[in-house]
Amino acid sequence: MSQRLRLLSVLASSLLLSACVSSPKKPAPVEDRNPQPARTAAPASAPVPPAPTAPEPKPAPGAENAGKPGYYTVKPGDALIRIALDNGQSWRDVAKWNNLENPNRIEVGQVLRVVPPGVDAAAVAARPIASAPRAEARPLDAKPAAASASAASSAAVTAAKEPAVKDKDKDSAADDDTLAWGWPVANPVTAGFDEQRNKGLDFAGKPGDAVLAVADGRVVYAGSGLRGYGNLVIIKHNNTYLTAYAHNRAMLVEQDQVVRKGQRIAEMGSTESDTVKLHFEVRKLGKPVDPAKLLPAR
What we know:
- By secondary structure, the protein is α+β, with helices and mostly antiparallel strands.
- Among the domains are: 63-120, Membrane-bound Lytic Murein Transglycosylase D, Chain A, CATH 3.10.350.10; 149-293, Glucose Permease (Domain IIA) (Distorted Sandwich).
- The protein is 17% helix and 20% strand.
- The protein has five helices and 13 strands.
- The strands form two sheets. Strands 3, 4, 5, 6, 7, 8, 9, 10, 11, 12 and 13 form an eleven-stranded antiparallel β-sheet that branches. It has a two-stranded antiparallel sheet with strand order 1-2.
- Helix 2 (80-86) packs across helix 3 (91-97).
- The longest helix is centred in the N-terminal third of the chain and has 21 residues, at 2-22.
- This is Peptidoglycan DD-metalloendopeptidase family protein.
């Protein structure tokens, strides 16, 4: 009996050992104490729109004519009356040739025709003056400073004796060689021509002294649109010569009026001057020249 029990015990031990070898233990589950969020696929990036391109700057009026003979490119500080004077033209003509609705509004870089349409600019050879001092622009149609009562009455008397003749399209056709010159005043010269510092002649005088046209021509400007010149009269004598009369107390002519040599056109004064004087200029194709070389001996 005991032998049988021992046999059963051995058999049971063998079975237990076999079960341990053939059935390995499963590992205990691992607990993750720092869970990470589930990863999702990154969305596709939206296309970036191209940066807007700046519009190309609009070319200034007349830019296609820049550098051509007979045209002028506007620079900072320019005024139409100065451009016209430096090219021997009437500012109204320049405004008309360039279809300027407002002659007081020109822009830097704008290219202006400064010779009449159809004229050979190379033959005319209009030359701007690079060394001319800058003039501050004023409205071209601004009224000149009021003259004194005596000046006004004098102007009325003069107008009665010398009736104005309107002729907008006619300039003196006198040839340069035959243009008859006279003196603008009988007063002494106080400052001569200097190409750098004085573009004409200065004459001393008293308020109200007569200022005379030095030759036949047409008034192309009468106003106070250039600072430094005061009340200014400009006369065009032909396609070559202009004359300018500055600092007047009173102006006795008006724009587009035809005048004759020796005609009283203004009275001496001190507008924009520290003394009473006449500043007189002669422009040949826009360039200041020494009046003393053209005026007759006296």
